[in-house]
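If your schedule permits, I should be very grateful for your opinion on a structural question. What I wish to show you is a protein chain and, alongside it, a tokenised description of its three-dimensional fold. Would you kindly read the sequence against the tokens and tell me how you understand this chain to fold? Here, with my thanks, is the record as I have it:

===
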Amino acid sequence: MKFHQIILLIALSVLTFSCVDTLTDYGLKVQPTTDQIQIGTDTFHLNTETDSVEYIYSKPDSFLLGDFFNVKYGSTRADILAQVNSMEGSNFTFPENAQPDSALVILYYKSWFGDGYSPFEVNIYQMNLNDSLVYSNSYRSNLDPLKYSDRSNLLGSGIFKAKDVSRKYSDSTALVIKLSDNFVTNFFNGRNYFTNEAKFLHFFRGMYITTNFGASTLLNVEQIDLEYYYHYTAKVSGVDKKISNMLIFPANTLVRQVNRFKHDNRPKVTSINDSVNWVASPANFQTRIVLPLNRIKDSIDKKIPAKNGVKQIVNKAILQVKATQVEDSTLSTPLVSYMLLIKETEVDNFFKKKELPADTSTVAVLSQIYASEIGTTGTYEYFYNYDVARIIANELKKNPTPQPVPMVLVPVEVVSSTSSTTGATTYSSVKQQQKMSAVVVRSGKVKDSKTGLKIKSEPMHLKLIYSGF
């Protein structure tokens, strides 16, 4: 829809509908009165830049594990620090004549990124007894694993290929790593701690899981279990029989896990062509977009002066972020599916408190990626749409002399549901993306038409519709 058509629809809605304005000086909806309503439009070019991301807050329900080198974005290395849950509440005790057999760590996954036939080695170390992850704490993804494991206690290792692994169950793919006999014995000696979580976590701090070589594969690990096998003798129908059994200690939501990310060989942001900006996960690059609140305020005041009781309203503020250099290769980094546009000062607070855009509409706006065919060419344009009217209105309400507001584009993963009656989508979880994804977007300084798409280049800009009555 053309911009002038949008303006016409807004004008028609002014004459047709009556709304209640929920803000005082700057609102989001038009409230018709008997007075003449003025409508203004403007387009603002934006200052944008690519910035490297040092960390995200890691509260994973799935994990990335491995190492992958990308010519454009550099290396991504992912390690896992994981506690496992004890048998607390089950009143479990070993039979008196129980004897230990073996122990395994199972890493379940259904997908991977990179080369499924390239070998890599997985090493599992026991975490130190003098340091422990605290369940109530939020941990940054750039934490130092050597604080929690000095690599002196290797529990087990194995060399694998993503497409050539054990299938423990018919519906899952898993890496199965046998733990050392020394661990099996020591773990059994601490069996009196198994029924108390606090004692258990003091006895066994957890595991540091990392890769030793290979730079072509990243696993999307969905579940981690420590399986412990033992046997005992019992009389069955008057006859002594050996009975084998197994305990599962899962890395679940009742204990703490952290995904550590490290980016070696990451290009400097100054080397990126300033006609584009980058967004890449996990914890790699983000794009900063500055909303020119001072210029917006001046524009509104010039066209619709706030005098003689005139009330200024921000109706729409559409920011379309357009993707470029879209790759079709099966080995290319997947496009970012969902991106959050959020005030830079609020990023840590938003994710640490597990907030949602619906509850923080004056702070953040969420968009999924959209695709639109260009005519009938079979070529598609990809973009993200943001209406930042509420953010702008709130900033103008708070400060009569507003300053530019830095926003950042953050790749996220979401959990959502769609109503079968209204078709409305509700988001129950928005987390910083911990899997591989990336997108190159047009910056505020597009200079040429080399976008990778057969469309005309244009710098990133904001289209504003406002009114007064």
Observations:
- The chain has six helices and 26 strands.
